[in-house]
Amino acid sequence: MKAAMTGYDRVSRVNHWVLAALMIGMLIMGFYVFKVLPDGPDKGALVGVHKSLGVLVLMLGSWRVAWRLRQGFLPDGQVGWQARLAHWAHRLLLAGIVVMPVSGLGLSFFGGRETGVFGVVTIPAGPKIELVAGLASAVHGAFALVLVLTLVLHVLGAMKHALYDRDGTMARMAPKL
Question: pTM of the full predicted structure?
Answer without folding.
Answer: 0.88
